[in-house]
Amino acid sequence: MSVLNGKKILLGVSGGIAAYKTASLVRLFIKAGAHVQVIMTPASKDFVTPLTLSTLSKNPVHSNFFSQDDEDAVWTNHVELGLWADLMIIAPATANTLSKMATGNCDNLLIACYLSAKCPVYFAPAMDLDMYKHPSTLSSFAALKQFGNIMIPAENGELASGLSGEGRMAEPENIVAFLEADLDSKLPLKGKKILITAGPTYEAIDPVRFIGNHSSGKMGFDIAHEAASLGAQVILVSGPTHYKVKNSLITVVDVISAQDMYDACHLYFNDVDVAIAAAAVADYRPKVVALQKIKKAADNFSIELEKTKDILASLGAIKKDQFLIGFALETENEIENAKLKIQKKNLDLIVLNSLQDEGAGFKKETNKVTFIDHNFEIEPMELKSKESVAVDILNKVILHFSKS
Ligand code: CTP
C-alpha cells in the first residue's frame, strides 16, 4: 500500500507547459489512494483546463479568492485549504511562482494557500535550462529550502523551447516515487519492530468443542494497521478472527490456543522493540482434551480446568528494553486492579477498558480507555472509535521513542 494512501494532497499548478502533465499526476495520486484538491494560478489555465483536473481529482478546482455564483460571491477559504492538506506540492513550479513563494508576494490563491499551509511543502520546478540556472532562480531555490520546503529537482531532456538540458518538470511517476520515498523515510516508527497479540484464544474440550470468548480481534488489528502506517514492521499474533490485514509490513501468525500464542510470542519477542498485548487470552483451559467427541450421557457434566500461562507476564519477566503495553479489562476497582497488573506483569503502560463504560468492550466499534503508565500517571480518554484508540496507543509509543 502506498504511503500516500489516505493522505490529503493540495496540488498547486502554476503556468508552464508542464501543467498538462498534472492530469497524470492527479490520476496517480488518486490511484495511490490520496484525496486531492487542486489550486490553479490564472496562467496555468492556458495549459490545462480546470474541468480536467476537477474531473480527475473528483473535487472542484480553486483558482480565485472568491467565486461569482450569479449575484452571490463565495469566498474561497485559503486558510482552510492550507490546513486541510497533509502535504502540498506545487507542480509545475514556474520561476515566477517560485520567486513569489520565496518573497511572500501573495497576489494569487496558490501563494495564499502556500503561505497558510502548515504541512510539508514540495515544489517541482519547470522552466527552460537558462532560467533554471539563473542566479535569481537559484536564490529562490535556496530561500525555499531554507524555509523547510522540499525541492523535487527538474530532469534533463528536451524542453519546450527546443533546447535540451535541465529544467523539465520531473515526470509524474517520478514525483510520486519521490514523495513516497521521502514520506516513507520520515515515518515515526520506521525501523521499529512491534509484536501485537489480537483476538480470542480457543481452548479445545474435544475435537469439536472449545472454550472461547467474544473478542473480535478488531482492537489488535487496528493497532497493527496504525503501526504499519507509521512505518513499523509488525508481527501480529492472532487468535481466530475474520479480520484480514491490508499492509505488507504486517506478518500475521495465526494461532488457536493460549499455548500457541505463548509459543509464537516467545519466538519473536527478543527481536522486537515494542510488544502490545491486545488479545483476550483464555485464563483457563481443559486439563484433559478428549480425543473423541464427548457423548451426551449424565445429566450434569463438569470439565476440570487448569490455568493457562500468562503470556504478557512472561514477556514482562524477560523484557530487556522492549516497551511493553498490556490491556486490562475490568468490571470493578478498575484503576487499582490495573495498577496491580502493571506491577505484576512489569508493564510500561496499561490500557484500561472498563466494561462499566458504555461503548467499550467486545464486538463494539468504539472503545473508552484510560492510560496508566508505570509511574501510575492516569490519563482518561474520550469514547472514540477503535481506530482512534489505536492512534492514541501508537502516539504513546512514538512519545516513548522520542524521549529515549
Ligand atoms: N494476558 C495474557 N495472557 C493471559 C491472560 C492475559 O497475555 N493468559 C494479557 C492480555 O492480553 C491483556 C492483559 O494480559 O493485555 C490483561 O488481561 P486481563 O484479562 O485484563 O487480565 P488477566 O491477567 O487475565 O487477569 P483477570 O482475568 O484476573 O483480570
Bound molecules: cytidine-5'-triphosphate
List the uncertain runs.
none
Helix content: 25-40%
Tally of distinct domains: 2
CATH architectural group of the largest domain? 3-Layer(aba) Sandwich
- Roughly how many Å is the radius of gyration? 28 Å
CATH-assigned fold name of the largest domain: Rossmann fold
Strand order in the largest sheet: 14-13-10-15-18-19-21-22
Helical/strand content category: alpha/beta
CATH class of the largest domain: Alpha Beta
Family: In the N-terminal section; belongs to the HFCD (homo-oligomeric flavin containing Cys decarboxylase) superfamily. In the C-terminal section; belongs to the PPC synthetase family.
EC number: 4.1.1.36, 6.3.2.5
Keywords: Decarboxylase, Flavoprotein, FMN, Ligase, Lyase, Magnesium, Metal-binding, Multifunctional enzyme
Pathway: Cofactor biosynthesis; coenzyme A biosynthesis; CoA from (R)-pantothenate: step 3/5; Cofactor biosynthesis; coenzyme A biosynthesis; CoA from (R)-pantothenate: step 2/5
List keywords for this structure.
elongated, alpha/beta, Rossmann fold, lyase, binds cytidine-5'-triphosphate, 2 domains, 8-stranded mixed β-sheet, 5-stranded parallel β-sheet, 23 strands, flavoprotein, 404 residues, EC 6.3.2.5, phosphopantothenoylcysteine decarboxylase activity
Explain what this protein looks like in three dimensions.
By secondary structure, the protein is α/β, with parallel strands linked by helices. The chain has helices at residues 22-31, 50-57, 78-84, 95-103, 109-116, 129-133, 135-146, 172-185, 218-229, 258-268, 311-318, 334-345, 386-403; strands at residues 8-13, 35-40, 66-69, 72-75, 87-93, 121-125, 150-151, 155-158, 164-168, 193-198, 203-206, 209-211, 233-238, 250-254, 274-277, 284-286, 305-307, 323-330, 349-354, 366-367, 369-373, 378-380, 384-385. The protein has two domains: 8-185, Flavin prenyltransferase-like (Rossmann fold); 193-286 and 304-403, CoaB-like (Rossmann fold, 3-Layer(aba) Sandwich). It is 33% helix and 25% strand. The chain has an eight-stranded mixed sheet, with helices on both faces. Strands 2-1-5-6-7 form a five-stranded parallel sheet, sandwiched between helices. The protein is elongated. The two termini are 30 Å apart. The relative contact order is 0.09. The structure holds cytidine-5'-triphosphate. Cytidine-5'-triphosphate (CTP) binds next to helix 11 and strand 18. Residues 194-404 are annotated as: Phosphopantothenate--cysteine ligase. Its EC number is 4.1.1.36, 6.3.2.5. Pathway: Cofactor biosynthesis; coenzyme A biosynthesis; CoA from (R)-pantothenate: step 3/5; Cofactor biosynthesis; coenzyme A biosynthesis; CoA from (R)-pantothenate: step 2/5.
